[in-house]
Amino acid sequence: MRARDRSSLPLHVGEAASKMAAADDSEFKTRKPFRRLTPRMYAVFGGAVCVAFLFLAALYYRTYQWIADREHALGMTQYRSLQFSPPDGRPFLPILMPAYGRPQYFRRVLDALVQMEGIEETVLVISQDGDKQEISDMIKSIPSRIKVIHLRHTRPYLRIPSLIGGTDYTTAANVFFLLQFAYEHLKAEGAIMLESDLVPSVDMYRYFQWTYTKFLRNEKYRDVIFNVNGFTKTSVKGGSPFDLVPYQFTVWGWCSADWLWPMLKSGWTWYNNWDITVQERIRIPSGRVSVSPVVSRIRVIGAQGITFDRDESDPLLNVHLMPYVANYTNVEPNLIGWENRSEWMVPHSHSEHVEEET
């Protein structure tokens, strides 16, 4: 209140107003200025945020592992209900298939599997990412003579990368999920990875059984051969079904052995391109090469909805596919160019990289 206004008030009121004004002035003069955050305080705050983030990430990771373990246990229940016994004398190689969408391709792959020689001797393990009913119905429609285990895969990281366009992490997690099921739960001696846009030849399973026995279970090649591929982009029409060449790891249909699983598990990526990681961080440092057939046992049909789009007439999508079932009895593989295998001990182009659309 202004001083000149106080004179017009009664004495006791004017004195009270003067005391209040003096108290306000004293408080204003003694009030401390706002305290700014120091670098140390910023560091403490940032550290607390990082610790909280790591705690939540660890908690979620354990939750994801718990969900995966539960699904694996349900898968084993399905396996036991099949009352399936692997045939004597031939390796048991479950066919592992991550699936999400693109039903037009998935249908063609399933139709080809029904026609494949030896399909009754193995188990088809399909890990469905997502809950698309059309894909679920296709899995249910597979003929009963084919043993099927239907798993449900839960995407890690709360699916957040999907919101910003990230897809590699989903396929990487699903492929790992399948390999872990095959080697740690089914206790398979080997496994075939076949994505849901890859059409197998009629003898793909017999081919992998043969090469698995001759290479992956042969001590002679244990330290030099990493895995067996099924796809060849330069597939030779009329070529020998027994000819193979040293090559890089190829994502489009491949077979591995149980002894490789510890290497894959320890070097796996949870976010980046899993096939590039296998190539550069696992295969090449191991000092091993992959081997590919001269005549392809796999045809890629996923022209659309992958990390790159191609025209249906693209030669890569129309490679010559092995047209009959070869007789592999007592036949030794013919390794062409084996003396030049060191060429594949350095990184090459990743033009053959493909991922499932998610």
Q: Helix count, per DSSP? A: 10
What's the average pLDDT?
A: 83
Task: Give the CA-based shape.
Answer: globular
- Summarize the amount of helix as a percent range: 25-40%
Strand arrangement, largest sheet? 3-2-1-4-8-6-9-7-11
**Using only CA atoms, what is the Rg?**
31 Å
Q: Which structural class should the secondary elements be placed in?
A: alpha/beta
For the secondary structure, the number of strands is: 11
Distance between the termini: 71 Å
Contiguous low-pLDDT stretches (5 residues minimum) are 350-358
Largest sheet descriptor: 9 strands, mixed
Q: Classify the beta-strand content into a percent band.
A: 5-15%
User: H/E order of the elements?
Assistant: HHHEHEHEHHEEHEEEHHEEE
Question: Could you write a compact summary of the structure shown?
Answer:
The chain has 358 residues and is of the alpha/beta class. It has helices at 3-6, 11-30, 39-81, 103-115, 133-140, 160-163, 168-185, 204-216, 261-267, 274-286; strands at 95-99, 123-129, 147-153, 190-193, 198-200, 225-229, 243-247, 254-257, 289-293, 298-300, 334-335.
Describe this structure in words.
- The chain is an alpha/beta fold.
- The chain has helices at residues 3-6, 11-30, 39-81, 103-115, 133-140, 160-163, 168-185, 204-216, 261-267, 274-286; strands at residues 95-99, 123-129, 147-153, 190-193, 198-200, 225-229, 243-247, 254-257, 289-293, 298-300, 334-335.
- A 9-stranded mixed β-sheet has the order 3-2-1-4-8-6-9-7-11, sandwiched between helices. It has a two-stranded antiparallel sheet with strand order 5-10.
- Strand 2 (123-129), helix 5 (133-140) and strand 3 (147-153) form a beta-alpha-beta unit.
